[in-house]
């Protein structure tokens, strides 16, 4: 019975988790790996997760922690040789050039700043929800967010930076 409940939850949450993972790592294959690893951890802790007040927040937290953990372990720096190029997924945005510029700039940020910005402005979480997901105080989230936005404004072309809503809710 619990397995069926878990499978039902995964079916409903998978698209959101995949999009969040993609924004965090900016690689479709790696995003799938992040989601898979997060779902394994979620399954192993399903008793706790199913009792959580907000399962989506719990799953998001697991995913972000898997992302940060793999960043610390230099997972992204491994070289993988392949015999053909993978198909590129197209992710439509309001302005493809601005989206690409923002993603490239986002990729230059340290992982915790990137995670704070993605959770705050992509996943639309509050400061407190982001702090809970990252396992840090709200003031740390505010600091990571402010530093991340400042770094993005320094590297993004002025016309791209002007189109972003970094109001800080």
Automatic annotation (TrEMBL):
Superkingdom of source: Bacteria
Transmembrane annotation, as ranges: none
GO biological process: DNA-templated transcription initiation
Residues in RNA polymerase sigma-70 region domain copies: 10-76
Sorted UniProt keywords: DNA-binding, Sigma factor, Transcription, Transcription regulation
RNA polymerase sigma factor 70 region 4 type domain span: 100-152
Database matches in Pfam families: Sigma70_r2, Sigma70_r4_2
GO molecular function annotations of the record: DNA binding; sigma factor activity
Family to which this protein belongs: Belongs to the sigma-70 factor family. ECF subfamily.
Annotated protein name in UniProt: RNA polymerase sigma-70 factor, sigma-E family
Source organism of this protein record: Cryptosporangium arvum DSM 44712
């Amino acid at each position: 019975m619990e397995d069926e409940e878990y499978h039902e939850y995964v079916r409903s949450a998978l698209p959101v988790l995949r999009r969040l993972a993609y924004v965090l790592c900016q690689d479709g294959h790696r995003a799938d790996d992040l989601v898979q690893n997060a779902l394994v951890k979620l399954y192993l802790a399903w008793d706790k997760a199913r009792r959580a007040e907000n399962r989506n927040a719990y799953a998001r937290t697991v995913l972000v922690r898997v992302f940060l953990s793999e960043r610390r372990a230099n997972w992204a720096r491994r070289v993988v040789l392949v015999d053909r190029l993978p198909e590129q997924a197209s992710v439509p945005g309001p302005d493809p050039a601005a989206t690409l510029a923002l993603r490239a700039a986002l990729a230059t940020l340290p992982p915790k700043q990137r995670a704070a910005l993605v959770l705050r402005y992509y996943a639309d979480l509050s400061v407190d929800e982001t702090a809970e997901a990252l396992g840090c105080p709200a003031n740390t989230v505010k600091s990571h967010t402010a530093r991340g936005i400042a770094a993005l404004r320094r590297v993004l072309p002025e016309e791209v930076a002007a189109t972003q809503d970094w109001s800080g809710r």
